[in-house]
Design brief:
The structure is a single chain. The protein is an alpha/beta fold and about 375 residues long. The protein is about 25% helix and about 20% strand. The protein contains 11 helices and 14 strands. The strands form 4 sheets. A 6-stranded mixed β-sheet has the order 1-2-3-5-7-10, with helices on one face. A 4-stranded mixed β-sheet has the order 4-6-8-9. Strands 11-12 form a two-stranded antiparallel sheet. Strand 11 and strand 12 form a beta hairpin. Helix 1 runs parallel beside helix 3.
Amino acid sequence: MSHEFKNHDLVDDIAKPGVRYEKRPARRPDGSEVPGLYNAWIWLDNPGQYNSYTTDMVKGVILAMRAASNARDVNCVVFTGVGDKAFCTGGNTKEYAEYYAGQPQEYRQYMRLFNDMVSAILACDKPVICRVNGMRIGGGQEIGMACDFSVAQDLARFGQAGPKHGSAPIGGATDFLPAIVGAERAMAACVLCEPFSAHKAYQMGILTDIVPALKVDGKFVANPTVETQRLFDDFGRNAYGETKTGDAPERRQGADETRHGRLGPAGRPCGRAVRQDPAHLPRLHDQDAGGVAQAQARGLEPQQGRLARLAGPEHDDRGAIGLHRLQRGAEGRPRGRLRAAAPETRRRSELGRPAARRDPARGENAWLRPQARR
């Protein structure tokens, strides 16, 4: 007995300017197609304006998500943007300026549509994969975080933009970011509006995975502009995914290719070597002759670490903590208000065992505290 299915789509034609909807055959892990099963691809098609969404595009995404939910032959949705510059950079500022500026009631209706778009992504009956092919900024970040999974090429950039232009990020950032990255990082992202790399987004938990976008000599390589080889800097702060500084990478014909900044002929970086900012290199004390020689061989000036500089006369009060360890190689007595620890105390501390002394007044061991200021 045959059975006719009812059509539960809201409209018969879901086409809207700036949004493309298509079905692609679903594939098994070995690449073979699954007969009769498809992935729905929803494209933001406004590359000339970095896939910023207009009012019609918002309507198109809502209808496309609803259609993918109802399609009985669709097993997942891929949400992406046309081109390689941007997934989405939020609302279309041209339309904002020409129509919505000065018309708060009209903008209220637009924001209702935007919230319906976020709800349509969240309520889609099929898993939604955000395919991040470039910038995911502002409202684009918000609709991206509404998806179930996010996979990005590693040249993509992420972040909020509205607050520095007077627009609160209440389309999803204030809801999703604290749950994903924590309250402090969410506050920084929404207030400072500083964009960050795909690797940093991956480290923060915003992305499911990242894939390389660049090829060198036929092999994929990681984004050379961000740090991918270490997790922390010299001071224990997060370094993975942070933007590198210094000279841009360059290739020299006939030079040996290297990975870690070794120098080629004439003392210039060669191959894939990137000359990093000295802040990214190990800190060297002037008294470390081996370190000085190594620095000079690499074309860098020997320098003292940031904390060592804090011990200078201009930082007498701010450089007190830990000076007995920082200034072991410095000449003379440590500057500042804290006296150097005794040698036996220093050795015990370096072995990881807290140094203790007998307190006659209390008849028990007490932690060794810094001497009081004079």
